[in-house]
């Protein structure tokens, strides 16, 4: 059963990855790079300061950084436990993939999916009552995570699991910040 799931995971990646074309490669290379998402992060920081004033806003921004650091380290821990090869390093399928980058770390679970989903969930929960359009923040993890499939550096299970873990992290950090805010800013 597990072997069948892994085989389906590989087949789905090969299919999705091969939908790509040279015409779109540069677009997905931009999407996968955190640097190009800085305007989104800056806009969210602006919204936090606008909605919560400078003290609480600064606390929330620092809390997001702490959440991102935790998410990153937790992802690295999971990778160290499972040690799943990235698709671009998997000799069984790497010749069947279009790969544009070749990271060497392990694949399971996707840090891009985990951290971007944690960020989106946290920001959504913080701002949903104040800014109804904040739901559009979920476009970020969808595109950011899909870029990893397009580039052939993660399997679909890595992305799905990363999104699930990121949802849990985002929710847990939201609850933790609510508790701390009630104590610090009461």
What do you see in this structure?
Keywords: Membrane, Transmembrane, Transmembrane helix. InterPro entries: PAP2/HPO (IPR000326), PAP2/HPO_sf (IPR036938). It comes from Polaribacter pacificus. The protein has a single domain, classed as Orthogonal Bundle (Vanadium-containing Chloroperoxidase, domain 2), CATH 1.10.606. With 186 residues, it is an all-alpha fold. It has six helices and no strands. α4 runs antiparallel to α5 and α4 runs parallel beside α6. The mean pLDDT is 96.
Task: Give the overall silhouette.
Answer: elongated
Radius of gyration: 18 Å
Number of helices: 6
Largest sheet: none
Name given to the CATH architecture: Orthogonal Bundle
CATH topology: Vanadium-containing Chloroperoxidase, domain 2
Mean pLDDT over all positions: 96
Helix content class = 55-70%
Give the beta-strand count: 0
Structural class: mainly alpha
- The CATH class, by name, is Mainly Alpha
Domain module count: 1
Quaternary state of the chains: single chain
**Low-confidence segments:** none
- First-residue to last-residue Cα separation: 53 Å
Order of helices and strands: HHHHHH
Beta-strand proportion: under 5%
InterPro entries: PAP2/HPO, PAP2/HPO_sf
Keywords: Membrane, Transmembrane, Transmembrane helix
Organism: Polaribacter pacificus
Pfam families: PAP2
């Amino acid at each position: 059963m597990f072997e069948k799931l892994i085989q389906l995971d590989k087949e789905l990646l090969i299919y999705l990855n091969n939908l790509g074309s040279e015409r779109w490669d540069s677009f997905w290379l931009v999407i996968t790079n955190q640097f190009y998402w800085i305007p989104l992060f800056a806009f969210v920081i602006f919204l936090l300061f606008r909605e919560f004033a400078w003290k609480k806003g600064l606390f929330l921004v620092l809390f997001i950084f702490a959440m991102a650091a935790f998410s990153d380290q937790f992802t690295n821990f999971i990778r160290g436990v499972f040690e799943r090869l990235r698709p671009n390093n998997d000799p069984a399928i790497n010749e069947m993939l279009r790969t544009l980058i070749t990271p060497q770390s392990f694949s399971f679970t996707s840090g891009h999916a985990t951290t971007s989903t944690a960020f989106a969930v946290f920001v959504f929960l913080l701002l949903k009552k104040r800014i109804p359009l904040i739901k559009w923040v979920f476009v970020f993890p969808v595109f950011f995570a899909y870029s990893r499939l397009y580039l052939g550096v993660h399997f679909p299970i890595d992305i799905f699991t990363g999104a699930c873990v990121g949802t849990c992290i985002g929710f847990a950090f939201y609850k933790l910040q609510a508790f701390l805010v009630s104590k610090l800013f009461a």
